[in-house]
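Example record used in the benchmark description.
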Amino acid sequence: DIAVITECEDEERLKNRVTFKEIIWKGMNANKGIGIFSFSDNYHLTLHDHYNEDIKDVIPVAVTGDRNFTLFACWAKKELYYIHGITNSLEEYMGSISGDILIAGDLNANQIWRGDEDPDYTTFIGILEKEGIRSCYHEWCKEEHGKETRNTHYFRRDPDRGFHIDYCLASQNLLNCLAHVEIPEYGTWIEYSDHVPLSVIFS
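Model output (structure tokens):
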């Protein structure tokens, strides 16, 4: 029903090639931004009232319909200090936003590149877990951070250079409804992108 796509072209460039019900797009140029799509009548997307245009790496979206929640669409980039920037942006938003929360996007981070005392990735996960927000993939697959068996990105589309850097994290009420998590195999998607989709289904 809903997709978060990073490095996404804007609505004008997509409208004749992709069929969707609604889109929210934010980016620095028309070629690459964060796109949040609704593909059904079950969910309506609006920019959250607390949206801050100065925050470029996290876009808060109010989702209403079959289930109401706040979606934070994320894209961690070098110029915005990667996961450290995402952490700061989420903390700023979450101080004034309550209710069920879903965080999704390309975080460009994984525990394998960070020590246990790393102030960035470890801090990011720790802050969210204190709020009851945890990774859907890790909850469903019962895997530890840094020990993922499925990759979401293949550097330069090389099958031997796969990493798990895309995430969907959810608050407890949503996790209670978690029904399935899937990441396709390398060969089924790599012709389209160096990332493969992380699909999460809630009942």
